[in-house]
Amino acid sequence: xxxxxxxxxxxxxHHPYRLQKILCNHNLAVSCVKFSNxxxxxxxxxxxxxxxxxxxxxxxxxxxxxxxxxxVSDLSWSSDSTYxxxxxxxxxxRIWDVRAAECVKTLxxxxxxxxxxNFNPQSNLIVSGAFDDTVRVWDVKTGKxxxxxxxxxxxxxxxHFNRDGSLIxxxxxxxxxxxxxxxxGALLKTLIDDKVPAVSFAKFSPNGKFILVSxxxxxxxxxxxxxxxxxxxxxxxxxxxxxxxxxxxxAGEKCIVSGSEDHCxxxxxxxxxxxxxxxxxxxxxxxxxxxxxxxxxxxxxxxEKDKTxxxxxxx
Length: 315
Known about the structure:
The protein is mainly beta. 0% of the residues lie in helices and 52% in strands. It is globular.
């Protein structure tokens, strides 16, 4: 079927997502949920000190990663989907062999709770941010720190590499969002420096040209990295208290997806900025969402009164 007429047609209509499964495997607040890069697995972290790995195909638990002595706030998958790095209130990061369900390294150096973590695309480096106001870059092989960046004046809420790993974006409760040179740890650009509201999340878009920034005034903005100006603004959700982790939906319709303090998951059309769907069902703040890399599937995580991971699929 040739698509000769598609050029003049409007954007395709939104096909709604529906709840597929509720996973109740954690016994305290779920802090994060993320699909592996190959999409075969997803993992959740919790204040119950553990991480759980699930099969995307069967939507069942494969393993539980046990070792942290305090709650776990964030996790990141290595590019080859074989390792997870976790960030914990016990001031450490741990690297886990997912298949063996074993901790292979513990990264020590932060002097307060570690709040956020990400592998670089090559997965030879890890970046972390903590309540000690620093961003640290770690060598995965040795487990040693490469840079300690005195990045912010308040806790670091998010850290993320761009597509080629050359840049790091960090956000903080101090109201700033900054771009760092991975190789040297040098500050390249301050994207936002507003004091108020706090920057609760920042990540590069898949193509590396934009940065999605969440602030604690119920607002998501898409910034152009090179010009330092924001292009799009997404509103309607509630976000005043928690560091909710939004993301990009790239399978099918291009969307921005975010949790919300009204217990819902929000989906906006990336270009049009219009709200296309609100997923209801969680019974507490939805702190984290993740979108499958190729299939039309979203997972979401709820805080203390909810404790669930929910799986949503497009009908």
